[in-house]
Q: What sequence folds into this?
């Protein structure tokens, strides 16, 4: 049991309270996905016009970047579970720093994408699509920024439980983007 | 080989799989600028849900968690996948009541256009002109409305 004394949450890796947060966030995004589907049924062509204004290549590139960042975070967790030796902390920090750097690259690509989509020509009037687009990607980006702050804490104090907890949050950010990307860019 | 090495190899394999599935989904989406052909839509949905499952099991390491948690979180991700699937399929099947795009631009017309694209292999890679005209008319009409 990774967390003895936490009742039903004791079998989960990392701090159980982080899992409460992860499950809440997944529920919030699941509700948004449902509302998005419903609004799309009401205005299919408006949503299609909005989707055609997006940059799917940059969205895909961001998926590749975030998944690689997730790999670096998972490797940091694996490293933190090894027996203590001279280079252990240094390697954990290196993997976490790589995860954070790729997280920053994600934010940078997103900023470039927003600029291309919103400041380089007229925006199609596509009903509610862009409200959802900005709302969902902005909310996700806020999670990325919060995750970057947490990664900073883990780099500062790379204890096994801290690294596991922070990386669990980071993978949740990953997981949401993996479903958000097809919802906004691909499924039409 | 110890457990950590096995775990690291598993992570790298999963990463390669996730990259491959992302590229497949990107390619399926890039083939059509209009509504996706049913096979492309199915490919995007399957690749996305498989990626989510891999992240839960391998990256988040839920393999070590009790079966109830694994199942519960998979159901939760499945609910999100259901939203994703609904966003892709419902507009093709349901006639929108009071759709803002008017009588000529119904979801049924999107479905017809999609069917035309997939049944004619020569036109598979180009935008369906019928749908294109509908979208342009819709954009023009909405652009003329005061914001």
A:
């Amino acid at each position: 049991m990774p967390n003895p004394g936490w009742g039903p949450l004791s079998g989960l890796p990392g701090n159980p309270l982080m899992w409460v947060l992860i499950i809440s966030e997944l529920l919030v995004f699941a509700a948004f996905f449902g509302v998005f589907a419903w609004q799309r049924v009401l205005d299919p062509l408006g949503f299609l016009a909005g989707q055609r204004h997006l940059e799917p290549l940059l969205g895909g590139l961001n998926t590749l970047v975030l998944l690689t960042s997730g790999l670096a975070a998972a490797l940091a967790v694996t490293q933190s579970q090894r027996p203590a030796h001279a280079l252990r902390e240094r390697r954990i920090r290196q993997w976490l720093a790589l995860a954070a750097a790729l997280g920053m690259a994600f934010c940078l690509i997103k900023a470039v994408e927003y600029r291309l989509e919103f400041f380089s020509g007229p925006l199609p009037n596509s009903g509610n699509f862009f409200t959802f687009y900005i709302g969902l990607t902005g909310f996700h980006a806020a999670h990325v920024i919060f995750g970057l702050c947490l990664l900073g804490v883990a780099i500062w104090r790379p204890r096994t439980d801290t690294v596991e907890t922070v990386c669990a949050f980071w993978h949740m950010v990953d997981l949401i983007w993996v479903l958000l990307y097809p919802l906004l860019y691909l499924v039409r | 080989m110890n457990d950590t090495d096995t775990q690291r190899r598993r992570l790298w394999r999963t990463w390669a799989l996730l990259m491959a599935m992302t590229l497949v989904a990107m390619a399926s989406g890039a083939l059509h600028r209009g509504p996706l052909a049913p096979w492309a839509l199915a490919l995007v949905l399957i690749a996305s849900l498989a990626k989510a499952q891999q992240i839960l099991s391998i990256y988040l390491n839920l393999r070590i968690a009790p079966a109830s948690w694994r199942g519960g979180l998979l159901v939760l991700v499945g609910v999100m996948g259901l939203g994703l699937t609904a966003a892709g399929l419902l507009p093709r099947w349901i006639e929108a009541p009071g759709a803002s795009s008017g009588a000529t631009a119904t979801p049924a017309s999107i479905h017809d256009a999609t069917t035309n694209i997939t049944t004619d292999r020569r036109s598979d890679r180009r935008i369906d002109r019928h749908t294109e005209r509908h979208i342009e008319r819709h954009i023009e009409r909405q652009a003329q409305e005061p914001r």
Notes: Residues 3-30 of chain B form the longest helix (28 residues). Chain B touches chain A through 70 residues (CB under 8 Å).
